[in-house]
């Protein structure tokens, strides 16, 4: 089974980066001076690699940090969040490392977090040699599956990534068992309020669990009601699945009105300046309104991780395809699922747009 969960991992890592290093790479965490702050350089990474054949994936992160011992003013941490087995992964780790170094001329430390489900996929180095020439790139690797044997430790840890890892592993264990997943999801969400975390941390962890442990809308609404009835939850306010569904419905109505207004204005102009031109303008305005509304839905559901999909939506010009796409995207539970839906629509639209 392949589970591409790079996107929720990427978002929670960015929001809780210090906790992430403390949990998965504690020896690295100890060497960083977080009092000086840190900076994500994902935009620079995208600009640098967008025209390169390796491309930029959702799981690529680049962070500027400061060393605690003052030996270097700052260096870069290149992090790969890999959600599936890939033969070329070691080569990509090496390629990214040297190209980032070549761009910034700063020390680059590459790390890998493997969130795939194949216990045998454990790439640790890139190596090639011939005629006395040799290249070796060895990088630290953490395999999330290995935490299956450390559940007791996870249950007592106060680091938010302990409950994140537990939720991820239980997502794998409850595949196809909605009732059991419901029970575990409810348990994890209730536990959040007993860990002494800040509101911002609770929001980040909640969103990860909600995104990862997908359930039918009816059960999500049931969990919401049961959680908000608890004393702990009443002390906090956060965006819930039920509220998100409500916002999506509002966005859907806005999209429909946008399409109607666009077509209506086009028809009015058509009566004044000629039916053909008016219909053409109305068609274009209707398409623009639809494109914009779909992009807004994607942004609402998936945030930054869905922006690449939004760009592809604007390239679809078939109204029926867009209508079908809208219906299916409303049911999508993850960016990966949304991307598969979009790819299917693009294929039916006559070409693969990317």
Based on the structure, what is the oligomeric state of the protein chains? single chain
What is the number of beta strands?
Answer: 7
Order of helices and strands: HHHEHEEHEEEEHHHHHHHHHHH
The helix content, as a percent range, equals: 55-70%
Uncertain runs are 1-6, 54-58, 238-243, 245-252, 350-354
Total separate domains: 3
Across the major sheet, the strand order is 1-2-3-4-7
End-to-end span in angstroms?
Answer: 26 Å
What does this structure look like?
This protein has a five-stranded mixed β-sheet. Strands 5-6 form a two-stranded antiparallel sheet. The chain is globular and about 60 Å long. It contains 16 helices and seven strands. Helix 12 runs antiparallel to helix 13 (275-302) and helix 15 (319-331) runs antiparallel to helix 16. Helix content is 58%, strand content 11%. The chain has three domains: 6-146, no CATH class; 157-234, no CATH class; 247-348, no CATH class. By secondary structure, it is an alpha/beta fold.
């Amino acid at each position: 089974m392949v589970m591409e969960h790079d996107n929720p991992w990427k978002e929670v890592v960015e929001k809780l980066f210090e906790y992430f290093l403390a949990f998965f790479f504690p020896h690295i965490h100890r060497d960083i001076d977080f009092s000086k702050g840190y900076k994500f350089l994902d935009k620079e990474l995208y600009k640098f690699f967008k025209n390169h054949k390796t491309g930029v994936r959702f799981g690529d992160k680049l962070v500027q940090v400061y060393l605690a011992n003052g030996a270097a003013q700052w260096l870069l941490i290149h992090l790969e969040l890999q959600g599936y087995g890939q033969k070329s992964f070691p080569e990509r780790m090496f390629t990214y490392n040297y190209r980032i170094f070549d761009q910034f001329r700063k020390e680059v430390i590459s790390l890998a977090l493997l969130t795939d489900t194949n216990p045998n996929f454990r790439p640790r180095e890139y190596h090639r040699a011939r005629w006395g020439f040799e290249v070796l790139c060895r990088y630290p690797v953490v395999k999330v599956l290995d935490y299956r044997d450390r559940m007791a430790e996870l249950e007592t840890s106060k680091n938010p990534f302990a409950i994140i890892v537990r939720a991820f592993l239980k997502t794998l264990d409850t595949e196809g068992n909605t009732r059991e997943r419901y029970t575990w999801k409810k348990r994890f969400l209730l536990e959040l309020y007993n860990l002494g975390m800040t509101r911002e941390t609770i929001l980040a962890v909640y969103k990860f669990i909600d995104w990862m442990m997908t359930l039918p809308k009816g059960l999500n609404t049931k969990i919401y009601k049961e959680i908000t009835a608890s004393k702990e939850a009443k002390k906090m306010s956060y965006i819930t699945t039920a509220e998100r569904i409500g916002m999506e419905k509002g966005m859907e109505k806005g999209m429909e009105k946008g399409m109607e207004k666009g077509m209506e204005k086009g028809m009015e102009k058509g009566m004044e300046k000629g039916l053909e031109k008016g219909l053409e303008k109305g068609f274009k305005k209707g398409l623009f309104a639809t494109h914009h509304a779909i992009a807004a839905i994607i942004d609402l559901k998936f945030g930054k991780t869905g922006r690449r999909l939004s760009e592809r939506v604007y390239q679809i010009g078939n109204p029926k395809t867009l209508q079908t796409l809208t219906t299916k995207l409303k049911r999508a539970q993850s960016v990966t699922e949304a991307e598969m839906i979009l790819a299917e629509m693009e294929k039916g639209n006559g070409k693969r747009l990317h």
